[in-house]
Each structure stands twice: as structure tokens, then as C-alpha cells.
Automatic annotation (TrEMBL):
One of its GO terms (cellular component) is plasma membrane. SUPFAM superfamilies: ATPase domain of HSP90 chaperone/DNA topoisomerase II/histidine kinase, HAMP domain-like, Homodimeric domain of signal transducing histidine kinase. GO terms for molecular function: phosphorelay sensor kinase activity. It comes from Thermodesulfovibrio yellowstonii. It is an enzyme of class 2 (transferase). The chain crosses the membrane at residues 12-32, 154-174. Its EC number is 2.7.13.3. It catalyses: ATP + protein L-histidine = ADP + protein N-phospho-L-histidine. PROSITE patterns: HAMP, HIS_KIN. The keyword Phosphoprotein applies. This is histidine kinase. Keywords: Kinase, Membrane, Phosphoprotein, Transferase, Transmembrane, Transmembrane helix, Two-component regulatory system. CDD domains: HAMP, HATPase, HisKA.
């Protein structure tokens, strides 16, 4: 039961309220009791003092008036007195005591008050010692005790009612306070794969829970984006794979329709081979992207020499550059290192330099530089190619995106190179930036961390 927040709130609330009301009740009861007893005691003291003034100095004569005696002797009266010697011998006592006596203890030297029972009825008593006598005065407090008793009953009943009302109030408060949480949880359980766009209403939520709602919404935003990206990716990938597949299918069908000569069979097989090559290239890149997006454990981060990687890449791509008469130069601090996985960094720079060659003009140039920034080593690849229009700059990292398909038509590619680069840079906790001017050229800058401090991988 106490695992529920509501039960905990109510229980806590109930304990606090009951304890406070109980303490208040005890305080009120004892305050009233003290006031009543103080007033009785001061009355008794006055009585004793009054009696003492009527006793002669040697204590043998009493000048008690009839009026005074009547006050003590009426059968209905609730007041008593008894005058004793110090040894307890009674000298005088009120008629109201009849044959009884007020209790006496020898040796009491100071004025003292106590509650006693006379004929089973509660009575308040004062012992008032004089030099050689003790005056005892008493008064029935039956009525006062009854009053206190009633007061205690009313107080207990009031406290009990207040506790019951508070429990009910606590229940309502807990219910009201938890409603927004219930709303949030209901909204969240409504959100499913087919309904990813629903959000928790942030406006009508108490400020304490707004942070929670905002985090939930943010999480669902990124989930929805990731889900949509995934959907888009699957549909793009199937779409892109359709083209070479239809080429293969149509060439095979047409060729098989009738008997062909060797030349025709050869041509068909070449077309099929080209399409299959595109498919292979595409599936390899798709696999690489999937591997990079899902599994970073495969990467081995270590200190790598950037110059040596870039030299290897340039060597690898040299035949391609030579075909177009493109000159590649590297200006760099040959010792500069960064933290990274050598094989994936090789893939990264191959893609960037491959683009710089593919989208360059014949006899163009490529300048590669390696610089130091505060926390990063920065590799810049600058080409003198066709450039990228400004409106396409932020889209070139999207999967399958190729600027102006007609323009890129004659250049082979599937539009996955920069997506792979972006993924590799993300895994390295680095940055990739692209600047370009149509007709002038493009500069791609890659920032890689120089040391392991603050590196999460
Ligand atoms: N250096 C560059 N100069 C001009 N355009 C570029 C450059 N680099 C990239 N682009 C443009 O960005 C698009 C995306 O590049 P990306 O490398 O992702 O794909 P791709 O080169 O077309 O295909 P591949 O997957 O084979 O690399 C390219 O199609 C091209 O239009
Ligand atoms: Mg490319």
C-alpha cells in the first residue's frame, strides 16, 4: 500500500496533522486545568487568611461571626475548615465536616495545596500553618472536575473530527497533486510507433513537473526524428536499389526475348555488370553506414599521425587524380597527431579527397593542410572544383543526397560518401564543416580531438 505516492502523502499528512492537533489539545486542556486550579487555590488562600485574622494571638479564641460559621455549616455547603494544633489535635472545625476530618500530616511548615477525596467526592485542600496552629480550608471541586471532563470530551471529539476532515482533505490534495503525473503517464502510454507525434501538454502542467514533461517531449522528438530518418533511409535505399535492379532485369528480359549474336550478348552482360557494380558499391556503403551507426565498439581509438594517413589516401587516389590532370599538394606539420581509429579515418579522408577529385575541373588543384586548433587537429581539403550552391550546403550530408542529379549524373556516386564522413566524425567527437562557392571551389574542414582528455569513446 505504501508503495503508492498517494498513500505516502496521505500517511505523512495524517501523522503531522494528528500530532499537531494532539499537542494543541494537550496544551489547551492543561492550560485550562491550571487556570481553574489557580483560581480555586487563590480562593482557598483568601479563606485561610480570612480565618487567620479571626484567631487571637495565643490561638485560644476565635472571633468567628455567625455569618461566617453559617457559610461553613450549611448542610449544602461545599466548604470546610479545620483548625489544628501543630501536633494534629483539632481545636475547631466547620459543621460541614460533621464527624469527618480533613487529612492532616504533621511537620508541614509551608503553605501547601492538594486534591483529596472526602466521602468519595473530590475536594481541594490548603494547609496554612501559623506560628502554633495549622488552618486547613477545603472546597469541593466536583463541579470543576466535571467541567474539565466535559472540556476533554469536546476537545477529543473536535480533534477526531478535524483528523477525519483532514484525511479527506489530504486525499483530495494528493489526488489533485498527482493528476498531472497521471496525465503525463497516460499521454506517454498513448504514444506508440504509429502515433509518435503526440506530446505531453507542457503549458497546463505545474512548474515542478514542467522539466519532466519537457524532457519527455524532447526524448520523443528525437525518437520521432530517428524513426522518421530510419523510415526515410529504408525507402531511399530501396528506391536507389531499384534503378540498377531494373536495369539488370530489363537487359536480361530484352536479350532473352530472341536469339542474339555474341556482340549483343556481350553488350547486355556489360550493362548488367555495371548495374551490379553500382549495387555492390551501394550495399557496401550502406553496410558501412549501418556498422558505423550501430557499433562503435569496433573502433580502436589511438594516437594517429594524420600526415601518414593523408599520404596513404593520396597515394590510393593518385591514379584517379592523374586521369583528370589534377595536382594534389599537402602542406602540413608532419608530426601532428589526433585521437582516432586509423581504418575509419582512412575511409573518411578517402571520401573527402575522392569528392575533391570527382567534382573538380580538369587540370584542377587540391590543397590539403593540417593545422592545430585549441583542442583539435584540423584537416582542410580545398579544391578548385564546381562548388556547391549555398542552398544545398546543409543537405549534402543527408543520405543519398546528390547536388543536381543531372550535373552529378556523369560523375559516378550514390550520395552516401558525406553521410559516412559525418558518422565517422561523430564517433570521433569531432566536427565537419563545408564551405563552397559555385564555380570557385569547395573547402571541407575536419576537426579531430588532439588528446584523450574529455574524450568519451
Ligand atoms: N568537393 C565537392 N565539390 C563539389 N560538390 C561536392 C563536393 N563534395 C560533395 N559534393 C556534392 O555533394 C554531394 C554528396 O556527396 P557524397 O560524397 O555524399 O556523395 P557522392 O559523391 O555523390 O557519392 P558517393 O557515395 O559515391 O560518395 C555530391 O553528389 C556532390 O554533388
Ligand atoms: Mg562522394
Amino acid at each position: 500500500m505504501f508503495s503508492s505516492i498517494k498513500a505516502k502523502i496521505i500517511a505523512f499528512y495524517l501523522i503531522v496533522i494528528s500530532l499537531s492537533l494532539f499537542l494543541l489539545g494537550v496544551f489547551l486542556y492543561f492550560s485550562l486545568e491550571k487556570i481553574i486550579y489557580d483560581s480555586i487555590d487563590s480562593g482557598l488562600l483568601s479563606r485561610a487568611k480570612a480565618l487567620s485574622t479571626l484567631i487571637s494571638e495565643d490561638g485560644r479564641e476565635f472571633k468567628f461571626s455567625d455569618e461566617l460559621m453559617w457559610e461553613y455549616s450549611s448542610p449544602k455547603t461545599k466548604a470546610f475548615f479545620q483548625i489544628r494544633k501543630l501536633d494534629g489535635t483539632t481545636i475547631e472545625k466547620s459543621a460541614s465536616l460533621k464527624t469527618g476530618d480533613l487529612p492532616f500530616q504533621r511537620g508541614e511548615e509551608a503553605v501547601s495545596f492538594k486534591t483529596i477525596y472526602l466521602n468519595k467526592k473530590p475536594v481541594r485542600l490548603i494547609n496554612f500553618p501559623l506560628s502554633n496552629l495549622v488552618i486547613q480550608c477545603a472546597e469541593s471541586i466536583e463541579g470543576k472536575i466535571e467541567l474539565l471532563e466535559n472540556y476533554r470530551k469536546i476537545l477529543s471529539l473536535s480533534i477526531l473530527s478535524l483528523v477525519i476532515i483532514s484525511t479527506f482533505g489530504g486525499f483530495l490534495i494528493a489526488k489533485k497533486a498527482l493528476t498531472p503525473i497521471k496525465d503525463i503517464s497516460e499521454t506517454i502510454s498513448r504514444i506508440s510507433e504509429s502515433n509518435l507525434s503526440e506530446r505531453v501538454d507542457e503549458k497546463n502542467i505545474p512548474s515542478e513537473l514542467r522539466g519532466l514533461a519537457v524532457s519527455f517531449n524532447r526524448t520523443f522528438d528525437s525518437l520521432e526524428k530517428a524513426f522518421n530518418r530510419q523510415k526515410q533511409f529504408v525507402s531511399d535505399a530501396s528506391h536507389e536499389l531499384r534503378t540498377p535492379l531494373s536495369v539488370i532485369l530489363s537487359h536480361s528480359e530484352i536479350t532473352l526475348r530472341k536469339e542474339r549474336n555474341t556482340e549483343e550478348y556481350k553488350n547486355a552482360l556489360v550493362a548488367i555488370k555495371d548495374a551490379a557494380k553500382i549495387m555492390l558499391n551501394m550495399t557496401e556503403r550502406l553496410l558501412m553506414l549501418a556498422r558505423l551507426s550501430s557499433d562503435r565498439a569496433e573502433l580502436k581509438f589511438e594516437e594517429v599521425n594524420l600526415y601518414s594517413i593523408l599520404k596513404d589516401v593520396v597515394k590510393l587516389l593518385h591514379p584517379l587524380a592523374e586521369q583528370k590532370g589534377i595536382k594534389i599538394t599537402i602542406h602540413a606539420d608532419e608530426q601532428l597527431t589526433a585521437i582516432g581509429d586509423r581504418a575509419t579515418l582512412l575511409e573518411l579522408f578517402t571520401n573527402i579527397i575522392d569528392n575533391a577529385i570527382k567534382y573538380n575541373i580538369p587540370e584542377g588543384e587540391i590543397e590539403i593542410s593540417i593545422k592545430e586548433d585549441e583542442d583539435y587537429a584540423v584537416v582542410e581539403v580545398k579544391d578548385t572544383g564546381v562548388g556547391i550552391p549555398e542552398e544545398d550546403l546543409d543537405k549534402v550530408f543527408d543520405r543519398f543526397y546528390r547536388v543536381d542529379k543531372a550535373r552529378s549524373g556523369e560523375v559516378k556516386g550514390v550520395g552516401l560518401g558525406l553521410s559516412i564522413c559525418k558518422e565517422i566524425v561523430r564517433l570521433h567527437e569531432g566536427k565537419i564543416e563545408i564551405k563552397s562557392r559555385v564555380g570557385e571551389g569547395t573547402t571541407v574542414s575536419i576537426y579531430l580531438r588532439r588528446d584523450k582528455d574529455g574524450f568519451q569513446a
